[in-house]
Amino acid sequence: MVDILNQIDSFVWGPPLLVLLIGTGIMLTIRLRLLQIFRLPHALKLIFTAKNQGEGDIDSFKALCTALAATVGTGNIVGVATAVHAGGPGAVFWMWMAALVGMATKYAECLLAVKYRTVDKNGEISGGPMYYIEKGLGPKFKPLACIFAFFGVLVAFFGIGTFAQVNSIVEITRLTADVPVEYTAIVLTIIVAAVTIGGLQSIARAASKIVPAMAVIYVVSAAGFLIMFYEQIPAAIEQILVCAFTPTAASGGFLGATVMMAMRNGIARGVFSNESGLGSAPIVAAAAKTKWPAEQGFVSMTGTFIDTIIICTMTGLVLVVSGLWTSDLNGTALTNAAFLQAYPTWGSFILCIGLTLFAFTTILGWNYYGERCVEYLVGVKGIMPYRIIFIALVACGAFIKLEVIWILADIVNGLMAVPNLIALIGLSGVVVAETKRYYAHLAAEKEAEKAALVDQKVTAGH
């Protein structure tokens, strides 16, 4: 079974998808004139200053937190560990590259989500790739939109949304506090049910409180580790850069890796972590209160920066500095052993809290993503049955093997990305036009502020 899944995974994440994924990001980066670098300060500022005017169900900050809830998860801790274990330190560099071009991709897909959003029969905002495929590319592309929504439900059910997260929670609580798997599964299922039955408002409220706290806890802990071993950081960075372009020799439990293995694992795990190009974040971005599609594009783009450039980099450096990536350990156990080097007493508990919160919020975010995909396919009548099945799968996720989970998640992720990337290429002209329109609005706003200031001075002079 594992061998068959591995073959499918290698085919799905072969050169064609990697070229499509990175190629789309490069194309958007060029067409948007390196927007993710030159406009990053503006994007970060908007997180706290977006006006939240216009139609929508939640404010921009809650939309970002809900998207981050889904993206900042086990991919940042376990996913980075499995990437480095399989591809060597060079995988971290390819995560960076995937994130750099992925920021332009995330900007474009979230802009389109707001532009083409609609309202469902319950009066709630619906948006995302299925809508911009059908409304942007045209009705004849509806089958492509349905394919995206179908794989979106599969990712929620069997990929990022349930199994990978639940497995990580039960594993870390078992390792840290020796809590039986069954107990963790029961408690987790009850809490997930309590929050997700309440829909987007309930999920967004929980996410906006948990996400900032969990990010601070983990980043401070990882920074503490790196401060303790600061002398080894330059060598670790050098190792990451060298191994990105040269094969990594076998050492200890590490079997060795080619450049292609480093690239494939880094990009695949990077996408698993930040979800740029996957088409998931646009689903919640569509619900943001904003008049300007580009404004939410900028806010959402920061999610990839926070997720990969900050949090994944922290994990990657901790693993490389620790030297344990060459051991027989993998996944949660590998990151746990690394943290214990700096915090022998509290390391496991710090990781347990971080990983549990990361994974729990990812479950919440993906519950909403899958729900919107179901609503697109069968209408609002499918929402409650979907929620019940999702909760049942959360209960089952504790008892499935780690290796099978990650391979299955990779496969459905890749299949979900393809329709979205096709739409992004087809609608790139719309993205550029909307971006120019927003820039013109910002320039006009600036001129109006200057004129108002001049009037004030004139009035004061009289």
Features:
462 residues; mainly alpha; two-stranded antiparallel ribbon
Write the layout of secondary structure elements.
Blueprint (H helix, E strand, L loop, with lengths): L1 H11 L2 H17 L3 H4 L1 H10 L10 H12 L2 H14 L2 H26 L2 E2 L5 E2 L2 H9 L4 H17 L4 H15 L3 H16 L2 H30 L4 H13 L13 H16 L6 H5 L7 H30 L8 H12 L4 H32 L4 H14 L5 H25 L1 H34 L1
Any overview of this molecule?
This protein has 462 residues and is an all-alpha fold. The chain is 78% helix and 1% strand. α7 crosses α8, α11 crosses α18 and α16 (293-322) packs across α17 (331-342). The protein is globular and about 75 Å long. The model has no long low-confidence stretch (mean pLDDT 87).
Output the structural class: mainly alpha
Biggest sheet, strands in spatial order? 1-2
In which range does the helix fraction lie? over 70%
CA distance, first residue to last residue: 84 Å
What is the overall silhouette?
A: globular
> What radius of gyration results from the CA coordinates?
22 Å
Helix and strand element order: HHHHHHHEEHHHHHHHHHHHHHH
The total strand number stands at 2
Q: Report the portion of residues in β strands.
A: under 5%
Poorly predicted runs: none
Number of contiguous helices: 21
Mean pLDDT: 87
In short:
The chain is mainly alpha-helical. It has 21 helices and 2 strands.
